């Protein structure tokens, strides 16, 4: 072809939310069918920083502006690129599409059709496989009425009516059902023998069929946006565009390729219909809700994640998933199979890090800045063990945007470590009343209350905010975390981007801290969790800091879960405490006076959190939101759990799409954006400042 020349030049590549767009030097290698990029033109002779196979790829100009386009490889990896202008974008897009088509066709010519290899998916699968039940009316032509028609010159394409779009959506739903059946049939193949689920041609078939459906969904979304923009001027405010929702369930319209002769909604469990019929966010109250701790009951749920049966049974699915991934690939948008999920949301996992409230409250009881920093380090290192539920590495539910989790702990005052000279009654009666209604009569109570709230404030990127406070002790912690996952071969790494701030208002001190990375190791055998990386804790006012290293196990030898750290006085660079041990076993603290203390985390008492019964929880609170997924996982019904999970995710996508079409911004409920972070809407430091100002005015 005259257009099959190699081209090269600078494009901007989107890396992530932190790094943003970066200039990179790209080379289109037509002979090899590769798109490669380098840091700059001078490093072109070196190994490329990244490479995409273009065979089976989808090249899509973006509708967000005239400069951006995406390259979606058959492997699932995506490059989001930006040219200097529309002309340059068109040049790259056309050359990439020509190269992609050439190498995709070459694969078909160089590899014999599947039927010539003397096997049939229908013969390999069950009697219910698509090959057995397929009817003439179920081919792609009847679904989409594919044809090549030229419009008479001068005639415009008629605008599709809403009913037509619904019909297209239904046909696409049928195609998606058949595509899922195809994938299931491939995955049911044996793991060894002449034809396996990891056959190279079948893996390519799975990848290209998925890419095709994704491309069709993108095209359909463009049609929806176009129609919405034309209708926008004539719609009253707050109107719901009902035709944007499919009439039928994507999951239930086709079962093993067979058409249903009755409405899918009738056949759908009531719980799934409930999940899909929750009102749109604009109709839900986004006003912060005050949770009364007296309505919360001690949690009796104890879901330890030590069951490996489902993981062993679904190993073929894990193998297929691994075959789709590439080293360093971002897993944020990868849908993981349901059987590897924990029975709790990520927001609840953050709450479980607070399972030793006695150590948390005891921080502010330290009589010196040095002692308070050491106590915070002790609490910090003891929090990770209970945050994990069992030894098996499983993944908590990805919170949907707007999801919240509330709980509290009651800690008997006699169980909190004290020091002689500590002032426990630093509040005046009037200040106690003003700070919080729950504090009235606190002198008569024999326990402290620690309240916790978490909210998913962003979906892309996935950011969670959480806040905990003990009003009686004038202390609170505020944090925001962006979880970023990457595929690392036989393990998965999760980076916790963000920071937390512990405020001790009695002492006017703030402690900033970060979180370690987490790794799921040995994902093909017995998956287990490992923490790694260096974290820092710092208090500017006192000049004390702590440096903690979570050590990953070396390839040969070495201990598991090892952690070391030290607390310093920055002005003199004096080490006042050293710590070593395992973060899930025994920790050894050595102090500057020569004393040594051992903490056995396996014997440390755990205070159960208190949560409201499901009947009193709001529709977006974690346990009520995920209750049907959790119940299905407890019953061992993976298919039903997957169906409920898909319904929640589909609803979230529909709501996000509607907000984009109506240009409606998302409003958080409990957390406010401040700079690069998220802060609780009514933190204790603001409340205390207001009370002190009021008392000053009164005096």
From TrEMBL:
Record bears the keyword Membrane: yes
A GO CC term attached to the entry: Golgi apparatus
Residue span, PH domain: 4-101
Biased composition (Polar residues): 117-137
Residue segments, region Disordered: 104-137, 638-657
Signal sequence, start to end: none
Any one GO molecular function term: sterol binding
Pfam families: Oxysterol_BP, PH
Cited InterPro entries: OSBP_sf, Oxysterol-bd, Oxysterol-bd_CS, PH-like_dom_sf, PH_domain
Compartment(s) of residence: Golgi apparatus, trans-Golgi network membrane; Late endosome membrane
UniProt main location, coarse: Golgi
GO BP annotations, alphabetical order: lipid transport
Record has Ubl conjugation as a keyword: no
Similarity field: Belongs to the OSBP family.
Record's function text: Plays a role in regulating ADIPOQ and FABP4 levels in differentiating adipocytes and is also involved in regulation of adipocyte triglyceride storage. Weakly binds 25-hydroxycholesterol. Interacts with OSBPL9 to function as lipid transfer proteins.
This protein's name: Oxysterol-binding protein
Organism: Apaloderma vittatum
Organism classification: Eukaryota, Metazoa, Chordata, Craniata, Vertebrata
